[in-house]
Amino acid sequence: MTKEELIIPENRVYGKPSLMNDTPMHYCPGCSHGLVHKIIAEVIEEMGIEEDTIAICPVGCAVFAYRYLNVDWIEASHGRAPACASAVNRLWPNKLTFTYQGDGDMACIGTGESIHAMNRGENIAMIFINNAIYGMTGGQMAPTTLMGMKTATCPYGRQADLHGYPLHITDIAATLQGTCYVTRQAVNTVPNIRKAKKAIRQAFENAMNKRGCSLVEIVSTCASGWKKTPEQANQWMEENMFPYYPLGDLKNTVQ
Ligand SMILES: Cc1ncc(C[n+]2csc(CCOP(=O)(O)OP(=O)(O)O)c2C)c(N)n1
Ligand SMILES: [Mg+2]
Question: Quick check: 181 and 204 in contact, CB under 8 A?
Fold first, then answer.
């Protein structure tokens, strides 16, 4: 069956998108990163922009994203993906440019770059994996760590007087004039995976149509960092993360 025939809905068989290569992923069981990679690959394939995509990967667990999807990638230094994406998109305005960042990368070391890229209305899409922790470096507290949540650097739980409050960077993004689409999604169930995929497609279309900056937050699990099994991590996310980071669109100027 040719690739064209495969994307006709009635011919479609469950499988790996052709953009995903056979490199074994380094992600832990139950991690959201792999699922999000897959839906990004599907969207790029469905939009037919495999040769017209430049992705910027972060420092964090997704540092090796460039190994798994066969598009052009640039590896930015920690937090600098939005600055890098801004330059790329100004040089190649007809390419899809997107960043892929964790909460430590986007909402801590890269807060300045993220907010200013969004505020400038760069024609880029930003995919933001919020697992409320620094996964890669051993589970330290992130700006998005919940109140009371235990991490390697707040073993008694996050306390306001010591650590301050969780940063709602997605809510801040929605207030910026340069953003056209800001949404919060998850990949914990099949319906949510479908919604997240639709959101990523919308963000990519906005970027290609030069409508401004889109931010897609994916509320995510980090089973290893949270010291839980994959099932427990999904349940913990539903019970604790979703009330604090409710799913849905925060801003959509495009409808
Ligand atoms: C300049 C710099 N500071 C700190 C680090 C250490 N470091 C690597 S990844 C990371 C945080 C990653 O967390 P996040 O962005 O949430 O991604 P995750 O691993 O959770 O997906 C940190 C602090 C670094 N590599 N470079
Ligand atoms: Mg993280």
Answer: no
* 3-state SS assignment for residue 135: coil
Domain 3-252 has CATH 3.40.50.970: yes
pLDDT recorded at residue 15: 80
Nearest CA to ligand 1 atom 9: 60
3-state secondary structure at position 57: strand
Tokens of 22: 């056979």
Reply yes or no on whether the pLDDT at 64 is more than 90: yes
* Ligand 1 site, residue 82, Cβ cutoff 6 A: no
Which ligand approaches the C-alpha of residue 57 most closely? 1
CA dihedral 15, 20, 23, 29 (to 10 degrees): -60
Q: Residue 2 pLDDT > 70, yes or no?
A: no
Q: What's the CA-to-centroid distance between 39 and ligand 1, angstroms?
A: 23
36 lines ligand 1 (CB under 6 A): no
What pTM was computed for the model? 0.95
- Summarised one tens digit per residue, pLDDT across range 232-254 is 999 999 999 999 999 999 999 99
* Spatial distance between the Cα atoms of 80 and 101, rounded to a whole number of angstroms: 10
Task: For residue 127, give the H/E element and its range.
Answer: strand 125-130
Q: Cα–Cα distances in Å, from 27 out to 14, 135, 160?
A: 21, 10, 31
Quote the CA–CA distance of 24 and 67 in Å, as a whole number: 9
For 95-123, write each residue's pLDDT tens digit: 999 999 999 999 999 999 999 999 999 99
Look at residue 10 in the predicted model and tell me its pLDDT.
Answer: 65
Give the domain ranges of the chain: 3-252
**For a pocket test of ligand 1, which of 26, 27, 78, 129 has the largest count of ligand atoms closer than 8 A to its C-beta?**
78
